[in-house]
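Q: What does the predicted 3D structure of NAD(+) synthase (glutamine-hydrolyzing) look like?
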Amino acid sequence: MTRKCVLATCQLNQWVLDYDGNRDRIIEAIKTAKAANATLILTPELCIPGYGLLDHWLENDVYAHSWDIAADIIARPDCQDIIIDLGLPVQHWGCNYNARLIALNGEVLAIRPKLDLANDGNFREMRYFTPWPRGRFEDYALPEVIQALSRQQKHCPIGECAIEALDGSFASETCEELWTPNSPHAHYSLAGIEIVLNSSGSHHELRKLDARINLIKEATAKTGGVYLYSNQRGCDGDRLYYDGCALIMSNGEVLAQGSQFSLRDVEVQTAVVDLDSIWAHRTSRSRGMQANEPSVQKLKRIPVDFRLCHPSLTLMTRPTEPREPRYHLPVEEIALGPACWLWDYLRRSKAAGFLVPLSGGIDSCATATIVYSMCRLVVSEMQAGNEVVLADAKRLYGDGFSTDITAKQLCNRIFSTVFMGMQQQSSKETRTRAKELSAAIGAHHIDTNIDTMVHSLHTLVADTLGFEPKFKVHGGTQSENLALQNFQSRSRMVLAYALGQLIPHSRGGAGGLLILGSANVDECLRGYLTKYDCSSADINPIGGISKTDLKRFIKWAEMAFDLPVLQQFLDATPTAELEPITNDYVQSDEADMGFTYDELSTLGRLRKTFKLGTVGLFQHLVAEWSDRMKPRDVYQKVRDFMYYYAINRHKMTTMTPGLYLESYTPDDNR
């Protein structure tokens, strides 16, 4: 008899503390897997309550409610005859654990707590959970809601273990454990386990997917085996976008791969796997010797009276053919990841849409283009019959909605742009670029001047202090020059929020607009922004993207989205336009900062990703930049970068929540 089975994994758009919605999405995935004759399904990490609960993990309610939902799922008639691997938190002997619940036909087979907790970068799991010691295995007293089910089960095993079905075996590891040097999957493989399950809450980062896929490839290529990977997808309310990409791999080859960016709340991947094909990858004598080590043989195995191999799979059934993994270009990641993040934020906040102050510069241009990308995705999903997207789009669009609206029509209804100019400072070119871009993507555009606001503030300050501040070009000091620039910047923030609250009403609608920020990662690191200007907003889709990558994205979008106007933004000199334009002076961002954007990107990445201090930065860059500048100039760049980074830390405490996309994204508000 051949051992062929259908295995399933999934990616779910779970919402924090949305127990009923999360349950329904899990059940939909299980039903989809069963329809494909799958006998085992893997779900994402902590999928019952959602992953990003932060300090809610310290509340008893979360644990009780999670068990209520788990009991509901495993008792459902349409969730029987399939092994279900669920993610939930559990309490055991006074400790909290991030755990997997493995169930079959209303019975809890085992609870497998997480061994290695993610506690760096964006993750703080050790604030909430305790790591489970390797090899520990004991009895767990099940809560009453499980005991009340038909089987009246009171206890189950908890710990590091494997499930031994009648015709195959599997074991679970969780997210971070894949990334650690001593990953459990290597131990399980030596112990003869054929299938390894990995449930994750892994967030999107530019250029990260290949590292994840390579780790899983290596996990199954060395000694064979099947690897199922499940991940959350979407924004659950934090600065992260979980990028799905559920995988099924066998013996180092990809059999199934979920989409990385999508507006679908539930996506299931299945594959027909031949477990007998694993044997050929496990015949080396060195592997056999390592497999007989005592530590390997100590792995606890739980026998289960269940067959993974479905009777409908015969000798004639073809296993799923391997395929090449699919990767997006970084510019495509920028177009799609932030767009999906924005859509989740919009539909969950119940806001009426977005507003962005459009300056005519490349940063706000990129934000507007990403919103247009979001509208394109929404329209594409509507055309594909996505009922959830249809319902959300109908609510946002209001009167006149139809399923054949275009991306530009949707953009016009839910997205407003506003150019807030000054007669002396704002050039005709920036004003025109803003207007033409808005027209190209269909946004509702407002072109106005803020002279009256700024002059009123100027007069009030002058009367209060007894002197009239002047711009530098008019003989003023640096302090006066900066203050007058900030009068304009902060007036724009006030007007943006006023318009955001009232534009829907002025257009016959209701509700308010979420204000989008447009400060990029490099300007945040340098502190080149004004607190409570237009960098202060509700959320910022480009807050984790470098200027260099933004330029590449705009160049790509010019062709991909058929937006020729974008070339004008690439050709323009980046400028804040906060000082008066004269015949011999036009303000330049790079001149003001003392750095090019490429230099800031390099410095930021070396500081955070490569963990170099001031001396380390100099030692690295004196060689890397030797063809462009002298050691003294390198010293000055490093010194200035660290100086401005230090004195502007206070600005980071008010930083608009920005989507995390870069390894050197500024530290968040903690």
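A (community wiki): The structure tokens above were generated from the sequence. The longest strand covers residues 83-92. The mean pLDDT is 92.
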